[in-house]
Amino acid sequence: MDYRETEQRAPLKRVWKGMIPIELQLAASDAIELLASAVLPEPFQTFYMLIPRVGYLPFISGKIKERWLDPMLALSGSRTPSDQIGESDIWFEYKGQALKWHYPIGLLYDMLVSDVHRGDAELPWSLTLHVRKLPTAKIIAQPNGQLMRDMFMAMIKEADFIRNGSTKRVMDLAKSDQMQFLDGLETHSYEKYFAIHSILVPTTTVADSRAPLSSASSTASNAQKNRGAMQPKAIPVRFYMQTAGSLDDGSAKDTQAAGAATSTTAGSSNSNSGATKQADIMQFHVSQV
User: Fold this and answer.
1) Please, what are the domains in the chain?
2) What pLDDT is recorded for position 78?
3) What angle, 0 to 180 degrees and rounded to 10, lies between the N-to-C axes of helices 190-200 and 3-16?
């Protein structure tokens, strides 16, 4: 990788390195069930963690269980063994809003907390951790790392199809490359992730894109051929927008499967005017030729 290509990747690397500090507290109802008390023993009242904006909540659940929940249950003499709490039991809440675990962490924070226009921020981000009563009407069931990896790979195939008209680039990856790609995402390893990302989304260098028109015909022909192979048929874009909904809002509908419904967006701002201020998130896709 030459200097110019490294310079091109600098903003991407900066986005990748973005982190959010979080502050976790166990839900009182879960604490009572696990420990027979809503007050957690010292020093387990609060758990702090620094998590990547580009990551997903299921990828941090295992660490939270290992570093916080398991020691707390062991040292408190709880009658609930730690192996009775699985990774798929863990879910997160923010001010009555069950966080959709298959959305990027940074997206959730920006949509629910941060106000870019006012510069407001809540740091650390204070979340409530639950290990019981997963609200399957609000979020997808079985939040775990493997399911998140499968869902992410499905999104990559979808983007590949929009970009290139087929999923050939993804399907041609060796199994070891797919594993490295997903391991890089889960462990937040820039090197692992982008080594495979560069295969899926190859880019022309600055030098290639600025090649003089007076170059030899064979060189120009080859360069044009290479650039044509890299030129996307369409640009995959995913939009997220806020709609009303919270754990206490029985009328709010689950919006996880609101895929390509662009018509829904036209009425969403009006139909939700009287609903709770807690934000749910709906997604849809747009491809631009």
Assistant:
1) 18-140 (3.10.20.620), 146-230 (1.10.246.190), 235-288 (no CATH)
2) 78
3) 120
